[in-house]
From TrEMBL:
Function: CRISPR (clustered regularly interspaced short palindromic repeat), is an adaptive immune system that provides protection against mobile genetic elements (viruses, transposable elements and conjugative plasmids). CRISPR clusters contain spacers, sequences complementary to antecedent mobile elements, and target invading nucleic acids. CRISPR clusters are transcribed and processed into CRISPR RNA (crRNA). Acts as a dsDNA endonuclease. Involved in the integration of spacer DNA into the CRISPR cassette.
Cofactor(s) required for function per UniProt: Mg(2+); Mn(2+)
Protein name: CRISPR-associated endonuclease Cas1
Sorted UniProt keywords: Antiviral defense, DNA-binding, Endonuclease, Hydrolase, Magnesium, Manganese, Metal-binding, Nuclease
Sequence positions that bind Mn(2+): 149, 216, 229
EC class name: hydrolase
Membrane-spanning parts: none
Organism: Sphingomonas palmae
Coiled-coil stretches noted in the UniProt entry, renumbered to this chain: none
InterPro entries: Cas1 (IPR050646), CRISPR-assoc_Cas1 (IPR002729), CRISPR-assoc_Cas1_C (IPR042206), CRISPR-assoc_Cas1_ECOLI (IPR019851), CRISPR-assoc_Cas1_N (IPR042211)
NCBIfam families recorded: cas1_ECOLI (TIGR03638)
Domain of life: Bacteria
Oligomeric form and interacting partners: Homodimer, forms a heterotetramer with a Cas2 homodimer.
GO biological process, one term: defense response to virus
């Protein structure tokens, strides 16, 4: 692709035409002859080489450990409305994301409308409960819903521990000292941090408002926590308890490292972030999400066009 050819340097393809996320790590993101390229030494997900990145057709670049980015690359991404986030390995940490300005404010406006209306806010909260537990609750009292959620989660903890052969004495969490709990509780804390990072990526990718939650209220990332909790009863507990089981083996690594490794694997295997993106759209714009919002999660993975170095 030559600079100026066919006017592509000025082209702006609407997010509705884009096909997802691209994961890059252990390399350098730069611009050469008007093209965005990524030169990498290689990783588990990408062979070593020189790749041309089709920034016109993606919504967000997830830049992992061991990577750097040039000023020209940031300028090019900003000019074409492609976001960039710095993440931990496999998106188990979310470090930063420049402001994402989608082509439309429809989803953010839908979120505000549903959040501001008491009845609609409760409907979204009930829909979240149904997504998690496969059950439509009749209550329209958020306190009752939270109580039912707490009871179901306690049961989920016990079942997951039994499934993984882990002794379980109950959930104990000290905000002042997260490492004070037993190994299982520590693993859940670390898995929760990883899941929150993944939800941050999803919320940023669609341009939703992190502060406006439907179950959570006080946190500055209440909606992020809402989305992360959709995966607490299954994916999060699988990550945590499988890491505990591995940590108890002779010579195993610290549980936090094992949690991160397991989370990175399951996030990719189960398409967790694309799934979060789809659920956000379903919750905020049921029946019309595909018409106006970018399908940011439809093609997570490698969207790069290989341009191998000689």
């Amino acid at each position: 692709m030559l600079s100026g050819r066919l006017g592509l340097e000025r082209a702006r393809i609407p997010h509705a035409d884009r096909h997802g996320l691209i994961w890059l790590d252990r390399g350098r993101l730069e611009v050469e002859d008007g093209c965005l390229r990524f030169v990498t030494t290689g990783s588990d997900a990408m062979a070593a080489g020189d790749y041309q990145i089709p920034y016109h057709t993606i919504s967000i670049v997830l830049l992992g450990p061991g990577s750097s980015v040039t000023h020209d690359a940031l300028r090019l991404l900003a000019r074409h409305g492609c976001a960039l986030a710095a993440i931990g390995d496999g998106a188990v940490r979310f470090y930063t994301a420049p402001p994402l300005m989608p082509d439309t404010s429809a989803l953010a406006r839908a979120q505000v409308r549903r959040w501001a209306d008491t009845k609609q806010r409760m409907e979204v909260a009930r829909a979240m409960y149904a997504m998690r537990f496969g059950e439509i609750v009749r209550t329209r009292d958020i306190a009752v819903l939270r109580g039912q959620e707490g009871a179901r989660i306690k049961r989920a903890y016990a079942l997951a521990a039994e499934r993984h052969g882990i002794a379980w004495g109950g959930r104990r969490y000290d905000r002042e000292n997260p490492e004070a709990g037993d190994l299982a509780n520590q693993a859940i804390n670390h898995a929760g941090a990883a899941m929150t990072a993944a939800a941050s990526v999803a919320v940023a990718a669609v341009g939703a408002i992190p502060q406006l939650g439907f179950v959570h209220e006080d946190s500055g990332q209440s909606f992020v926590l809402d989305i992360a909790d959709l995966y607490r009863h299954d994916v999060l507990l699988d990550i945590a308890f499988s890491a505990v089981r591995e940590a108890r083996a002779a010579g195993a690594a610290p549980v936090e490292r094992l949690v991160r490794k397991r989370a990175a694997l399951l996030f990719r295997q189960r398409s967790v972030i694309p799934g979060m993106i789809d659920r956000i759209k379903t919750l905020l714009m049921p029946g019309q999400e595909g018409e106006v919002i970018a399908d940011a999660g439809a093609g997570a993975g490698s969207a790069a066009e290989s341009r191998r170095a000689p």
